[in-house]
Amino acid sequence: MAGEIAWISHYDDDYLQKKTEDFDLDLSEEVDKEASAVSVDVILPDDLLERILSYLPLASIFRASCVCKRWNTTAERFLWNPSHLLPQKPWYFMFTSSDEPTGHAYDPNLRKWYCIELPFIGTSNWFISSSYGLVCFMDNDSRTELCMCNPITKSCRKLLRPPGMSSDYGALAISVDKESHGYIVAIVKSKQVPENFFQWDISIHLYNSKEEAWAMPLTEVLTGWRGGDESVICNGVLYFVVYYAGGVLPENRHALVAYNISNRFSQASLSFIPIPCSLTCARLMNMKDKLVMVGGIGKHDQPDIIKGIGIWVLHDRKWEEIVRMPHKYFQGFGEFDDVFASSGVDDLIYIQSYGSPALLTFDTNIKQWKWSQKCPVAKRFPLHLFTGFCFEPRLEISP
């Protein structure tokens, strides 16, 4: 299929031990002594070759290792010690089936799509959260099946089942420590109080990979608000979106709740932060340790109808608007629902409509909107839905 490229399927535990006999070239034969031309590869010092390869995207590093013995040896040093590689832009995995977890990953460095099989995940409607190269999956039924994996290396690990009751709504978030590679998994559960439509039990469950144990530091009853499926961890604070559940009508139907998880011995409580304007939906992301929100802006007289998309960053409990999507890009999605998928890492934000495989990116550093390369999968039937998530392509980290 046009535009579709298989991911480097030979990356596995044995890859670094494989030799490229088919490309085993004798460098002494590369130069024709009687010719005036000289092979650049022969005169290129090892340190300069290594520096050149360090600028390549991850997929190109794998391909470069198949050129010759020398390139293979140099590329292996990167694969064993990826810290020498320059930072890679985050990839976006798009689910192309609502029943099965099949899809394609988009590499913005090369503007190409790859076929990738995700380990462990059951269906595309599972809860998903990513941080520093790791992705966590949680089932959407019992919310007790959890797995951490690296989509690039395919390393995978099942986590202990979280304790506690079942819930009506759940939100998943993870945070990976860049130095130790330890991680925290947070689940926010929300369950309606029996025979009370306005009150909801909220419980927070935290998993620490170093201790390999769960803790439940907070349980609380909210009046007029319920939890949802959107949360993120940023600078040791767990943020999650709550929704109007009846009672006194607030100014906006959404609100942000913050809970400090950095000090587990403190008696932290939930803190409410107002949403900047009336939104149809809100998507949270940690971008360089800053909380960023992408929201669908509702019409003033019809808050359920989306009229545009805005991006905000939180500073000292106050929202600062970064940008609003130009109308030509908003129209470019075609029919746009009031809810949509959006996630981001570092400087890159992805926005996707559930109704089509169109994918839009926004670079917060250079303030640039750009459509991705066309996805190799087209919409097959009217109710064919698409969704996805972004993750950092890293080789050095495992669950």
The radius of gyration computed from the alpha-carbon positions, rounded to a whole number of angstroms, is 23 Å
Which strand-content bin applies to the residues?
35-45%
Report, as a whole number of angstroms, the end-to-end distance. Answer: 33 Å
Enumerate the strands of the largest sheet in spatial order, edge to edge or round the barrel: 1-4-3-2-25
How much helicity do the residues have? under 10%
Q: Residue ranges: pLDDT <50 for 5 or more in a row?
A: 9-35
- Strand tally is 25
Number of helices: 5
Main sheet: strands, sense, barrel: 5 strands, mixed
Question: What does the overall shape look like?
Answer: globular
Q: What's the helix-strand series?
A: EHHHHEEEEEEEEEEEEEEEEEEEHEEEEE
What is the residue-averaged pLDDT?
Answer: 84
Structural class: mainly beta
Would you write up a description of this structure?
The chain has helices at 40-43, 46-54, 58-64, 69-80, 327-332, and strands at residues 4-6, 91-95, 103-107, 112-115, 127-131, 134-138, 146-149, 156-158, 169-176, 183-192, 199-208, 213-223, 225-234, 237-244, 254-260, 271-274, 279-287, 290-298, 306-315, 318-324, 341-345, 348-352, 359-363, 368-371, 387-391. By secondary structure, the protein is mainly beta. The strands form 6 sheets. The protein has a 5-stranded mixed sheet with strand order 1-4-3-2-25, with no helix packed on it.
